[in-house]
Amino acid sequence: MNGGGIIAARGLQRRPTMMRRSLLPSLLLIIVLPIPGTAREEPPVAAEQPMAANSRLLVRAHAHNDYLHERPLFDALERGFCSVEADVFLVDGKLLVAHERSQLETERTLETLYLDPLLERVRANGGRVFPDGPDFTLLVDFKSAGDETYIALDTVLAQYEEMLTVVENGLVEKRAVTVIISGNRAWERISADSTRYAGVDGRLSDLASNRPPHLMPLISDNWALNFTWRGRGPMPDSERAELWRIVKEAHAKGRRARFWATPDQPSPERTALWGELLAAGIDHIGTDDLAGLKSFLLDSAASTSLR
Fold first, then answer.
1. What does the domain layout of the chain look like in residue ranges?
2. What is the Cα–Cα distance from 194 to 3, expressed in whole angstroms?
3. Would you state the pLDDT for residue 302?
4. Is the pTM for the entire model greater than 0.85?
5. I want to staple 216 with a disulfide (CB 3.0 to 4.6 A). Which of 143, 211, 254, 297 is the partner?
6. 163: DSSP letter
7. Helices 268-280 & 237-252 angle (0-180, nearest 10)
């Protein structure tokens, strides 16, 4: 999804500002590790790979509202999550991270909570967030006006070019961290930028779009607005077929797929729904319950490996 070799070869040296522009991958957000039970009709294999003696990387695990945890980013990283989400507001030129404006704190910036610690890890780990690990996704959800927030984000991301996947004039250079913009997406301004450090999160209405995957690497939407099933009882065949169709079409366009607003309280319903997402080949399963999703994915991988 592996630009680690490129980064390592350059010694992770930051380029001069005038050369800060480089590239974001054409298959930017397609998970490159094998995934169990995908809709691509591949043999089921475990997606996770060893991270440490008693831990595994979870390429499908997405930390929704990650900044609400006691230790933003680090709680997810320690559990092997390969994707995190941060909501940002542009306030007095700063990208502040919070769920609501009333919760803003001047020291909780995108740089201090995410970009700086990620850069430190990338430098320490030979050009990857996890040693020899997959690409890491940072989903940035714009809560303030799209155009102004994007301009500020682009300026900030340029200072972290050495670790970011970048797109320049349609050419992609993949690196350790892929940034995707969600929320108030400034499509026209972002599309017009010949050099980008971020892609844009599409919606189901964009499923048939011909936008290049380096511009729209991800399709996300609200589960509750598209499916009636919430995990209780068997999933209707028609809804399962629709889920598989969505994932297949997203993958055919070189994009990842994700749903938000799925059940997230520990329950048999949540487990059943996560199981259907996993079987369909969904690329990101989001949760606020990091430990719960980790246990589910590791149990699923162990179960698959025994088949």
1. 4-30+52-296
2. 20
3. 72
4. no
5. 211
6. G
7. 40
Find the distance separating the first CA and the last CA of the chain, reported in whole Å. 28
Q: Which of 177, 213, 219 is nearest to 197 (CA)?
A: 177
DSSP characters for 191-225? HH-SEES-EEEE-GGGTT--S-TTTS-EEEEEHHH
Please spell the DSSP secondary structure of 123-142, one letter per residue. HHTTSSSSTT---EEEEEEE
What's the whole-number mean pLDDT along residues 85-100?
96
Residue 69 in 3-state DSSP? Answer: coil
What stretch of H or E contains 214? Answer: none
Residue 144 and residue 164: Cα distance in Å, rounded? 23
* Residue 215 DSSP code: T
pLDDT value at 47 more than 70: no
For 103-123, give the DSSP string.
G--TT-BHIIIIIHHHHHHHH
What is the largest distance, in Å, between two alpha-carbon atoms of the chain?
Answer: 58
Give the C-alpha separation, 270 to 187, whole Å. Answer: 34
How do the residues of the chain divide into helix, strand and coil, expressed in percent and rounded to 5? 35, 20, 40
Give 178-208 pLDDT, tens digit per residue.
999 999 999 999 999 999 999 999 999 999 9
Q: What is the amino acid identity at position 299?
A: D
- The topology (CATH level 3) of 4-30+52-296 is TIM Barrel (3.20.20)
Q: Is the pLDDT of residue 16 over 90?
A: no
**Tokens 């499923």 belong to residue:** 207
Which ranges in the chain belong to alpha helices (H)? 4-9, 74-78, 110, 116-124, 146-157, 187-192, 223-226, 237-252, 268-280, 290-305
Cα distance between residue 64 and residue 212, in whole Å = 26
Q: For 216-231, what is each residue's pLDDT tens digit?
A: 999 999 999 999 999 9
Exposure string for 242-266, b = 16+ CB within 10 A, e = fewer: ebbebbbbbbebbbbbbbbebbbee
